[in-house]
Amino acid sequence: MNLINDFTNPWLQWQQAAVDETLNTAQRMRLLPSLLERARQIRKGVTPSEVVHEEDRLKLIHYVSGKPPRYRTPLVFVYALVNRPYILDLKIGRSVVANFVERGFDTYLLDWGVPADADRYLTLDDYINGYMVNVMDYLCERAGMKKLNVLGYCMGGTMSAMFTALHPKRVKNLILLAAPIDFGTHDGLLNVWTQSGNFDVDKFVDAFGNCPAEFLQAAFLLLRPVQNLLQKPIDFYERMHEEKYLEDFLATEAWLQDNIPVPGEVYREFVKYLYQQNLLTNGRMPVGKRIVKLENITCPVLNLVAGEDDLVPCGQSTPFNDLVGSKDRKSLMLQGSGHIGLAIGGRAQRELWPQVCDWLAQRTN
Amino acid sequence: MDARFGRPKIRNMSDPAENFTKQSAAFQKIWLASMSKLMQAAFTFTPNSAPPELLRQIRNGMLQALAGAWDEFLRSPQFQASMKQWMEQAVAFRKMSNDFMSKARKAVQAPTSGDVDAIMLSVRHMETRILDRVEELSRQVHELQSRAGQVQTQSASPRRAQKNLRKPLRAKKRAKRS
Predict the structure, then answer these.
(1) What residues are paired with A49 via a beta bridge?
(2) Cα(A192)–Cα(B6) distance, rounded to whole angstroms?
(3) Are A220 and A130 in contact (CB under 8 A)?
(4) Which tens digit of pLDDT belongs to each residue from A106-144?
(5) Which of A89, A119, A154, A299 is catalytic?
(6) Which residues, in sequence order, are bridge partners of residue B174?
(7) Could you say which DSSP state residue A202 is in?
(8) Are A224 and B67 inside 8 Å of each other by CB?
(9) Distance from A359 to chain B by nearest Cα, in Å?
């Protein structure tokens, strides 16, 4: 009897699998016409918000909570100049911002806006000593506080670290999320490709002005070509009939395709001074007339790192804690997580962000 | 830059024999890795395991091998050299199109991007000079304010002392009146 079972079971299973696959394929085909419409309907940012301050293209977004904030010191999210900041408030259950708003933090997000061709001459000095200082002044006045909590994501983290080093009296607590600091490592492909022998950034910026969004998009795609161009479409095809997966996929993809150009001079400074010369860790990074010394950072520091980050490998972020002058410094690494997963991933939402909220709550008033 | 990681040397690509050997070795490596992953998946197959799962495992193994090979290729001096060449061509093409557009606009007496850039630069130059001047003035005002504050505290202290001296006298006068 067992022998017959052993013989027939695989064939039954093959048959079952074939029927299942046919049904799933039919379901997928049924979904196809509505996909584009669903992608168009993706909401960009889910937590209720209002714009409280504007300067040129910059917008300061305040997240509105039903109840008054528990902590008086405002928390500002500083986003990168690449891509759009709504990844931090992507969808319900995947929003970094919502974690802090629900815990009673007075939360703000700095949206740099989309640079136009005329913005090609904006430098890091304009962003850090200009826009960021103005925003922090505005927020301090609004909240009646002298210091603020700052959370910087990716390139926004590098800029936040520079800001804190140049204006240490304005920052109460600094949180970095997948922020590149030490560019001396060659773990990441971007570090290899941008070496001066391979890439003449001066010629590039002189010819193109702002760094085109399509160029950045292509570079990010090439970081993991097999995963991005093969694995992802196959996974999508296989799981598109799962409602939850489809929702997450469309939201993330809509954001990934929503690239913006980077102001030419900022791009030149970033590539030349950081990727090619690694001046930040050596204490020689110029921002306007001043030099950034990371040891000037003395406030409490929390450094969040993703274990499987292909854009900012952990070797690029972890040295930060050894370079600052703070006594209260901590690093949290989320193993098995990537650059975006560190912010919006399910495990990050369950395990990482509650810890970060606790850390900040203990150090703020 | 960290001394441990020297920039990869771009080797001479003109040696066809060496090039061919390397390329065939890389090609062989991808296929060997793919086949070994495929075999691994096939050997873990049992009659009870669901067939689509087996196919998925085989596919994942092959994609993994392919991803590894691509990562190696994207780090290779060959790729970097071709990327450099491609970038130079893109920059040259962009320059050419910029020049062409400038000439065309000049011909119809319209402002070119170069003209706009020149205005932008002069505005930025002016802005920098004004901001520098404002910063300097603000520093001077701050200095004057702090000096004025010091002078006030110095001059205010004898007055306070005089006021304090007068207080008991006033109290005595009030007592006499009452």
Answers:
(1) A63
(2) 10
(3) no
(4) 999 999 999 999 899 999 999 999 999 999 999 999 999
(5) A154
(6) none
(7) H
(8) yes
(9) 33
